[in-house]
Write a structure and sequence with these properties.
- The protein has 917 residues and is mostly beta strands.
- It has a domain of 96 residues: Carboxypeptidase-like, regulatory domain (Immunoglobulin-like, Sandwich).
- It is 13% helix and 44% strand.
- The protein contains 13 helices and 50 strands.
- The strands form 10 sheets. It has a 22-stranded antiparallel β-barrel. Strands 10-15-16-13-14 form a 5-stranded mixed beta sheet.
- A hairpin with a 5-residue loop joins strand 44 and strand 45.
- Helix 7 packs across helix 10 and helix 8 crosses helix 9.
């Protein structure tokens, strides 16, 4: 009993002591200019670890065990920092912050995996903040990337934008890395970034950083063309309910712009809710839905020559599908001559030259479903284990219907992608594991499906006297016999052979399309069944507490690709293919010369189980502080890329006797038997067919594909001039080795006699990934200037240029970029009485340039474009809402970012925003 009484006495003493020891500080922070609540402001105990953030109404509550008086340190980007002395807790604090210029204050993380000033970064880096996104005229942050210095994009459709830097621009770029909240955002099977498909929602972007050029030493394989690092909003920092509703219209004046889609509505709705529960727990939920009638690719340029559908019987339009089936009808003419020698006056003149005829193709509009839909949802839960350790669990899921361009146009219908993460992080370390899982849904492959539709309603040749080509030949001779000109005779022959054709939209066409596109490639259809998965685990530690004389960061990474396509994309008929990667990296940095010179170097070791030899990459940089906020930087970066899973292992039937193939010997020798049946370049085969001269045939030199690499040097200068002018200039030079490109080749399986090429039914075409033997160089330069004009007016301009030297003409290298870009922005984030008005406008100019699509889909000149986006906004302060009226490409002058991609017109919109941070 005495012990219990003693325990009660101790509790009575301790409890009041503990209660009195914990201080609860309440307050509110506002903008001194507008009296609006200041959200996401950092509130920290000076020289302590306790801290919190203001919520969406500027309120905060900070718990600390320190006795009064306490000094709070108040800070946020765009505001002057402030210290507040707290002597008593009798009433909530009311703190107002003065605005400060943002230029030169930006901080970045991705350049060196540590927080540092953007000005002092060792490599070129561009950044977008949530404030930039909030005031932009573009509809989404992926569109905003086009205005960043050094960044180029290919827009395949609404919802699918591929990003790159320093040339090599193409849809589905496997040499550009996209990191979202620490997770590689690539498709596990196809290995290219998924853009915004499972990226951050529009309301959840905290910041985006883009590293230009080589970045493998920090982020691993496939970082040759650059890396984009996107960070979502921390629910402890950004709280409350936010809503963004955009209603727009596109395809304006569609007939004038040769756009087959009538004027249509555009919808984009986003919602975010985040809540902190006590000091330990916070969560957020995000959702976004986009729906619109997509832009349509309708380039009718003939890929087989200068003629049109009316003048060239071998016409095959860029965005007409099915015309890839082409044959020389001379054998049918010879058969007709043998059956009726009296036709000699008509036939013999024709036999002097090849007479290639293509099947009739289908235009994209009415064939591919242009109803674009994207839905993604994200949830995240955070738990503070201690003041320095945090546990994070997140899940992101995306689905929808979009189109992207590769070796043909692909209708991604009902695709599903999920990304799930568990992470534990401290102030010096983190451990992260995540998985990405994809389901390709009912993807329609435009070119091969159209070819199969043509073969289904009428076979090209049935082996006897029937088929489309025999009918065509008979119609041609009948028309010539009646005195019709050769051009008109070909048109009459096509009309005859196309009788009974499955026309777009008819029950017959829809039945054939559905049957073929829903039958797996392995069973004679065109559906690929990609159910691949990626598993990743990584850890990093900053040894700054243990190593005092320099900064030391080290990390390890493990990754597993589980390739599962049911023999439709990879040779995985029996079981999924497992590809593993192992990595370790070390980064060292040291400041010397009174901390004015920062010397840094990074090393990374990577091993991929498909390849015998590991890769060691490195980066070294010098950043010299010339004087206050003036920095000179010099860097060397070595980057590499193991061939992507597609580049190594793809084995996809891509039409009649046509394959898209990786460059692994597993395919080239084991599957295609190139060692027994030699491949020749497709161009030389076609010359042989026309000339019957075997000397024009050129063998394709094949070898097992291997990693490609680049050595890049960059010299740059960044500075703040006064407090309102920021400049950055740079130049770079890169040397590429074992450059991976594509070549179109052909062989005759079952025969090594080149004469077999004369029979179009016996040879097979391949689009092969391979390493070029030449050393390829790229170089370029760039400059940017940002001006703070005062009163919230800001203007920015940038210019950049990229060039390719020593081009390997035997490869399709995807260096699809103009020699220069010019971008200009002018904006104001708050003007008028109480600063409730704002606006922004931007201009993007690109001259015309030559563009080649992988897989031989198309090549040609992309016209120059000058795109203007603009918006004006009004803020309802008391309702915490705003209205924006704007447009993208407001002149409605249609433009394209690449051959075979759609032409993009204006979108005019009205946006309602509630509680947008």
């Amino acid at each position: 009993m005495k012990k219990i009484a003693l325990l009660i006495q101790i509790l009575c003493i301790c409890v009041p002591f503990s209660l009195s020891a914990q201080q609860i500080i309440n307050g509110q922070v506002s903008n001194s200019s507008t009296s609006e609540p200041a959200y996401a402001v950092s509130i920290h105990v000076k020289n302590g670890k306790e801290g919190t953030f203001t919520d969406d109404r500027g309120r905060f509550q900070l718990k600390t065990n320190r006795p009064l008086p306490i000094t709070l340190y108040i800070s946020a980007i765009g505001y002057e920092s402030k210290e507040v002395l707290v002597n008593n807790l009798s009433s909530p604090l009311h703190i107002s912050l003065n605005l400060s210029p943002i230029l030169g204050q930006e901080v970045v993380v991705s350049a060196s995996r540590t927080v540092q000033s953007k000005l002092s970064a060792p490599v070129t880096i561009e950044q977008m903040s949530s404030k930039d996104i909030r005031n932009a005229a573009q509809l989404n942050y992926m569109d905003m990337l086009q205005g960043l210095r050094g960044v180029d994009v290919t827009v395949s459709s609404i919802g699918f934008t591929s990003v790159t830097t320093r040339g090599f621009n193409t849809s589905g770029n496997t040499n550009f890395t996209q990191i979202v909240d620490g997770m590689d955002n690539q498709a596990p099977g196809l290995n290219f970034p998924l853009g915004s498909v499972i990226g951050l929602t529009q309301l959840d972007v905290d910041n985006i950083e883009v590293l230009s050029g080589a970045s493998s030493a920090l982020y691993g394989s496939r970082g040759l063309n650059g890396t984009m690092v996107a960070t979502g909003k921390n629910p402890f920092k950004y709280q409350g309910l936010s809503v963004l509703v955009t209603q727009g219209v596109n395809h304006i004046n569609h007939k004038k712009n040769n756009d087959p889609v009538p004027t249509s509505p555009y919808y984009d709705w986003a919602i975010r809710y985040a809540k902190q529960m006590g000091n330990k727990i916070a969560f957020k939920i995000n959702g976004q839905y986009t729906q619109a009638k997509d832009w349509v690719a309708n380039d009718e340029t003939n890929k087989n020559g200068p003629g049109t559908a009316l003048t060239d019987p071998n016409y095959n339009g860029v965005n007409l599908y099915g015309g890839a089936t082409s044959t020389d009808i001379n054998p049918f003419l010879e058969g007709a001559l043998q059956g009726n020698p009296e036709l000699a006056p008509l036939i013999e003149p024709l036999l002097k030259n090849p007479n290639y005829v293509a099947r009739t193709g289908y235009p994209e509009y009415g064939y591919l479903d242009n109803r674009a839909k994207l839905f993604k949802i994200n949830g995240e839960f955070r738990y503070k284990v201690s003041t320095t350790i945090e546990a994070i669990a997140s899940a992101t899921f995306g689905t929808g219907n979009i189109v992207y361009t590769n070796d043909t146009r692909y209708q991604l219908k009902g695709f599903k992608v999920g990304q799930y993460r568990l992470e534990l992080r401290g102030d010096k370390w983190f451990f992260r594991t995540y998985t990405t899982q994809e389901n390709s849904g009912r993807t329609l492959v435009a070119g091969p499906t159209a070819q199969y539709i043509n073969e289904s309603w009428k076979t090209s040749y049935d082996g006897g006297t029937g088929g489309w080509y025999p009918e065509y030949t008979a119609g041609l001779l009948n028309a010539l016999a009646s005195g019709t000109s050769l051009t008109d005779a070909h048109l009459a022959a096509r009309t005859l052979a196309d009788q009974g054709r499955a026309e777009l939209g008819t029950p017959l066409f829809n039945r054939l399309k559905d049957s073929i596109s829903n039958t797996p490639i392995s069973q004679g259809g065109t559906l690929f069944l990609d159910r691949s998965k990626l598993y990743n685990a990584e850890a990093q530690y900053n040894f700054s507490d243990l190593v005092k004389f320099m900064q030391v960061i080290a990390g390890v990474n493990w990754r597993l690709y589980n390739l599962n396509s049911k023999n439709t994309l990879f040779p995985d008929k029996d079981k999924p293919i497992h590809v593993k990667e192992y990595s370790a990296y070390l980064q060292l940095a040291k400041k010397v010369l009174d901390d004015r010179l920062n010397i840094a170097t990074s090393f990374r070791y990577d091993k991929n189980t498909l390849f015998a030899q590991p890769k060691l990459t490195s980066r070294a940089s010098l950043v010299f502080d010339l004087f206050h906020q003036n920095y000179l930087r010099l860097s060397y970066q070595n980057a590499y890329s193991f061939p992507s899973n597609i580049q190594a292992l793809q084995n996809t039937l891509n039409g009649y006797n046509s394959y898209s193939s990786g460059g692994s010997s597993l395919l080239l020798i084991d599957n295609y038997q190139f060692d027994r049946y030699p491949p020749y370049t497709l161009e030389s085969v076609q010359k042989f067919q026309q000339s019957n001269d075997p000397t024009v045939l050129q063998k394709f030199k094949f070898d097992d594909i291997k990693p490609q690499s680049v050595n890049a040097f960059e010299l740059g200068y960044a500075a703040m001039l006064g407090k309102r002018v920021m400049i950055d200039v740079l130049g770079y030079f890169s040397t590429w080795k074992n450059f991976i490109g594509y070549a179109n080749v052909a062989n005759t399986p079952g025969s090594d006699d080149y004469n077999a090429f004369k029979d179009h039914a016996t040879y097979v075409q391949y689009n092969i990934a391979f390493n070029g033997g030449e050393t390829v160089n790229t170089y370029g330069y760039a400059a940017s200037i940002s001006l703070d004009l005062g009163r919230n007016f800001v203007t920015k301009a940038n210019y950049y240029s990229d060039y390719l030297k020593n081009k390997n003409n035997s490869q399709i290298n995807n260096f699809n970029t103009p020699h220069y870009h010019f971008n200009l922005e002018f904006a104001n984030s708050g003007f008028g009485k109480k600063q409730v008005w704002s606006f922004s406008t931007s201009l993007r100019y690109k001259p015309g340039y030559y563009y080649v699509v992988s897989g031989g889909l198309a090549a040609g000149q992309v016209p120059s474009s000058a795109v203007i986006d603009a918006q004006v906004s009004y803020k309802f302060v008391k309702a915490r809402s705003g209205i924006r009226i704007g447009g993208t490409n407001i002149t409605n002058k249609y433009y394209s970012t690449g051959i075979a991609n759609p032409r993009i017109g204006a979108v005019y919109y009205v946006t309602y925003a509630y509680n947008i941070f």
